[in-house]
Amino acid sequence: MLLAASSEHTYVVQTVAFWIIAIAMAGAAIGVVRTNNVVHAALYLVVVLAGAAAQYILLVAEFVAWVQVLVYIGAIVILFLFGIMLTRAPMKPEGSLDNDQRWPAAVAAVFILGVLVMLLVDAFGAKHIAVGNLSPASGSSTVLGNSIFNGYLIPFEIVSLLLLAALVGAVVLAKKD
Amino acid sequence: MVLNNFLILSAFLFCTGIYGVMARRNAVLVLMSVELILNAVNINLIAFSAFHHEISGQIFALFVITIAAAEVGVGLAIVLLMYRNFRSVDLDRADQLKG
After folding, report:
1. Which of A62, A90, A121, B58 is most buried, by the most CB atoms less than 10 A from its CB?
2. ipTM metric
């Protein structure tokens, strides 16, 4: 009885946490595509990425959440800020940052969202994720490391090769002749 | 937790990203919208990983994060090259392949 009550309580807390984070993420995502200041867009992107990391923690994917924080917020957003700085994008733009396809793009995006939501509701209805049955270790670096180096060793090595190629490619592209 | 909550959040992020890719003119902002799309994919992968009690979704998400990092590196190098050639990052000006 006590156990049932406490799992009910956990469920409510998790759902409330999900919605708070989800609403913040949705607002920030709209900020990324609507703001007229490039630096603000990068900062909104940080909110979306941190929200995604929080959702991963809600789903007991602890290691992926920290990788998300380190790689996305720590590296990719900094790269974006460097890109903004080096291309001297106007802080207060004379022209708009949008092109004239804004309305067709909005219609297409809303249409795709509608189709996807209909499809998801039809396919998955009210299926639940049994987070309570997940062991806290199921997202730990031990489990993930074992799985990567046992079952996904070749993809892992190929990805490291891809990173090397991307590194060399970026240097070659950005190098002054 | 309801599985569909996560999937619908992810669909919303995906569509916001699509809107950004189509409606933005600044190349850096288009790359940011691509990041939104990749994050939507990651949320889907993690949600299904938890739903099926299966670790491979998380491993795929790690691979997606790696590829996103590579993509941003090369993408920003291309944007810098474009800025050097056109003195702007306006994608509407990169129309030399137009017939």
Report:
1. B58
2. 0.92
